[in-house]
C-alpha cells in the first residue's frame, strides 16, 4: 500500500474513532518503571499551613485544605497523591465550624496537632485528639467544629482519584436532610464481645467512626512481633473483622529501633504518615528521612524497607491493598528479614 492510500486508511480510522493496537504505547509492552516516592516534610509544610490560616476560612471555602499533589502528574488536572489516593492537610481554627456535606468518596482524618475539635459523622460526635483516626465513610454526613483554643491540623486521605476514574463522584451540601441511625462506640468497647442488634448491619464500613490513638498504641503493645521486629495492627470493622472502610485499608506499624523491616513490594498504592519517632525508608533507589507528622508515598512495585532511628517510631499506613485483594489483582513479594 502506498503512502497516499495508507494515509487515507488512517484518516478513515480516526474518523471512526479507531486506533491500531499495534501502535499503542502501552499494549504488549513491559511494565513501566516504578514511580518515585514523594515526601512532604512537616517542618516545611507546617509554616505554609500557617499562611492558609490567614488567607481563608471555612465560611468562605468548603474546607481549608492544602492537597499533597504528586509532582509527576499523569494528566493536567491529576491531583492524586498516590494514583488512587489523595492526601491533604486540613486546618480548623478556634471557634470555626466546617459546614456539613457528604459525598460518594471515603475519607479518613488523622489528627496531627491541637485539640478541642470534633467531627460529627451522621451527627455522631467524634472527639479529635492527637493521632486519633476518624472515619467519614462514603455518603455519611460530616462536619467539623472547634471549641478549643489552638489550631487543629489533621491529615485527610480520600479515594477521590479512584472515584474520578470510575465516574462516581457525587457531592451533596448540607443541611442534613436525614438522620441515619448510628451505634454508640461504647457498644464495641469490650474485646471479643459485640452487641446484638435488632436489625442486620449491612453497611460496607465500620459502625465505629473514632479510633483513639491510646487504644491503638495499647493494641500495638499487645501485638506479637513479626520476624523483622515490627508490630502491626489493622483498623477494622468490629462486626465483620474486615477493613474499616471498603476501598481504603489502614494499619499502624511500630518499627523496632535499628532493625530494618523486611524488603517488600506491592502493586497497592501507599501513603504513610509518621505518628511518632524518626527514621528512614528506602523506596526503590530513594531514601526518605522522616520525622513526626511527615507524609510520604510508596508508589507501586518499589522494593521498600523502613528503619527507625528512635524508640516508638510508628507509621500510619493507608493503602488500597484490600480492595485490590478482593478484586483478585493484588501482587506482593517479600524477602524475609535475616535478623
Care to describe what's here?
With 339 residues, this protein is α+β, with helices and mostly antiparallel strands. 15% of the residues lie in helices and 32% in strands. The protein is built from five helices and 22 strands. The protein has helices at 3-15, 42-55, 160-166, 213-222, 321-327; strands at residues 39-40, 65-68, 86-92, 97-103, 107-113, 117-121, 124-128, 133-136, 142-146, 152-158, 171-173, 210-211, 231-234, 249-255, 263-266, 270-276, 279-283, 286-290, 295-298, 304-308, 313-319, 332-335. A six-stranded antiparallel beta sheet has the order 1-19-16-21-14-13, sandwiched between helices. A hairpin with a 2-residue loop joins strand 6 and strand 7 (124-128). The longest helix is centred in the first third of the chain and has 14 residues, at 42-55.
User: What is the molecular shape?
Assistant: globular
Give the total of beta strands. Answer: 22
* Series of H and E elements: HEHEEEEEEEEEHEEHEEEEEEEEEHE
Strand composition percent: 25-35%
The computed structural class is: alpha+beta
Rg computed from alpha carbons, rounded to a whole number of angstroms: 22 Å
Enumerate the strands of the largest sheet in spatial order, edge to edge or round the barrel. Answer: 1-19-16-21-14-13
Report mean pLDDT, rounded to a whole number: 95
- Largest sheet report: 6 strands, antiparallel
The span between the termini is 65 Å
- Supply the number of helical segments: 5
Q: Segments where pLDDT lies below 50 for 5+ residues?
A: none
Q: Portion of residues in helices?
A: 10-25%
Amino acid at each position: 500500500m502506498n503512502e497516499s492510500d495508507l494515509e487515507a486508511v488512517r484518516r478513515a480510522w480516526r474518523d471512526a474513532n479507531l486506533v491500531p493496537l499495534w501502535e499503542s504505547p502501552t499494549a504488549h509492552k513491559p511494565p513501566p518503571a516504578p514511580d518515585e516516592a514523594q515526601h512532604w516534610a512537616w517542618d516545611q509544610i507546617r509554616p505554609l499551613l500557617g499562611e492558609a490560616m490567614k488567607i481563608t476560612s471555612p465560611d468562605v471555602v468548603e474546607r481549608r485544605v492544602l492537597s499533597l499533589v504528586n509532582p509527576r502528574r499523569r494528566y493536567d488536572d491529576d491531583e492524586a497523591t498516590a494514583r488512587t489516593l489523595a492526601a491533604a492537610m486540613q486546618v480548623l481554627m478556634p471557634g470555626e465550624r466546617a459546614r456539613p456535606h457528604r459525598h460518594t468518596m471515603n475519607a479518613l482524618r488523622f489528627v496531627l496537632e491541637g485539640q478541642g475539635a470534633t467531627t460529627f459523622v451522621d451527627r455522631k460526635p467524634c472527639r479529635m485528639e492527637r493521632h486519633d483516626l476518624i472515619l467519614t465513610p462514603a455518603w455519611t454526613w460530616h462536619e467539623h467544629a472547634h471549641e478549643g483554643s489552638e489550631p487543629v491540623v489533621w491529615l485527610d486521605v480520600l479515594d477521590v482519584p479512584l472515584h474520578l476514574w470510575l465516574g462516581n463522584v457525587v457531592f451533596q451540601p448540607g443541611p442534613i436532610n436525614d438522620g441515619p441511625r448510628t451505634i454508640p462506640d461504647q457498644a464495641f468497647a469490650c474485646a471479643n464481645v459485640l452487641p446484638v442488634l435488632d436489625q442486620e448491619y449491612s453497611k460496607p464500613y465500620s459502625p465505629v467512626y473514632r479510633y483513639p490513638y491510646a487504644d491503638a498504641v495499647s493494641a500495638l503493645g499487645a501485638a506479637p512481633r513479626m520476624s523483622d521486629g515490627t508490630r502491626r495492627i489493622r483498623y477494622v470493622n468490629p462486626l465483620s473483622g474486615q477493613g474499616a472502610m471498603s476501598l481504603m485499608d489502614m494499619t499502624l506499624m511500630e518499627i523496632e529501633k535499628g532493625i530494618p523491616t523486611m524488603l517488600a513490594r506491592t502493586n497497592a498504592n501507599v501513603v504513610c504518615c509518621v505518628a511518632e519517632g524518626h527514621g528512614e525508608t528506602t523506596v526503590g533507589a530513594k531514601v526518605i528521612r522522616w520525622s513526626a507528622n511527615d507524609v510520604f508515598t510508596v508508589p507501586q512495585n518499589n522494593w521498600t524497607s523502613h528503619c527507625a532511628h528512635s524508640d516508638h517510631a510508628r507509621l500510619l499506613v493507608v493503602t488500597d491493598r484490600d480492595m485490590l485483594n478482593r478484586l483478585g489483582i493484588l501482587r506482593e513479594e517479600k524477602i524475609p528479614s535475616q535478623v
